[in-house]
Design a protein that fits this description.
Elements: H1 2-18, E1 34-39, E2 44-50, H2 57-74, E3 79-102, E4 107-113, E5 118-124, E6 128-151, E7 161-163, H3 164-175
Antiparallel strand pairs: 1-2, 2-6, 3-6, 3-7, 4-5
Helix pairs in contact: 2-3
């Protein structure tokens, strides 16, 4: 019994580690969680932010805008204008089966988590499963991609043009992100 309680406690800790929102940081590689940028020309970039299944769509879009503002300032410009904007979603479903084994068998259902994802594992020893319950969970992750054109004063009078300093300050304050 004590071993089972320790197993459940360990499983809870592992699942909690898998369920935290993506932090605002550079991605380790393209497609990983975090932001990336690609130069498309002297004053044009593509900025992408990829979130995990716990990071909502609005936060992913805000992080992409924050990175665009920071990059604009880093490159010595005052403003940026959105040339193109796209948000993609990826959904993944997983099913969990739990049940009561008869005739000496047993079923264990647990989550195995790595750095980037978690898997549900069902381990069953021989016996006959009866009274089982199945459930399906769908998780969605988002990726925001912005193509931006940067410039210095005067800023275009467009709803898609942003003052980089103002936007970065506003988003950092609103999201509680540390300045770089």
């Amino acid at each position: 019994m004590r071993t089972q309680m320790m197993f459940v406690a360990l499983l809870s800790v592992l699942m909690a580690a898998c369920s935290s929102s993506t932090t605002y940081q550079p991605a380790e590689k393209r497609g990983a969680y975090g932001y990336t940028e690609t130069a498309l020309g002297k004053d044009r970039y593509r900025v992408t932010f990829t979130g995990n299944t716990v990071t909502d769509k609005e936060t992913v879009n805000d992080y992409a805008l924050l990175r665009a503002a920071e990059l604009t300032l880093q490159e010595g410009y005052d403003w940026f204008q959105l040339v193109n904007r796209d948000t993609e979603s990826k959904s993944r479903s997983s099913s969990t089966i739990s049940g009561v084994n008869e005739f000496g068998g047993s079923t264990q259902v647990y989550r195995r988590c790595g750095l980037l994802s978690c898997d549900t594992v069902v381990a069953q020893t021989p016996g006959r499963l009866s009274g089982g319950v199945a459930s399906t969970t769908t998780r969605t992750s988002y990726q925001a991609s912005l193509e931006i054109k940067m410039g210095n004063d005067p800023m275009p009078e467009s709803a898609e043009a942003y003052n980089a300093q103002e936007l970065a300050s506003t988003l950092r304050r609103w999201m509680g992100t540390k300045e770089k």
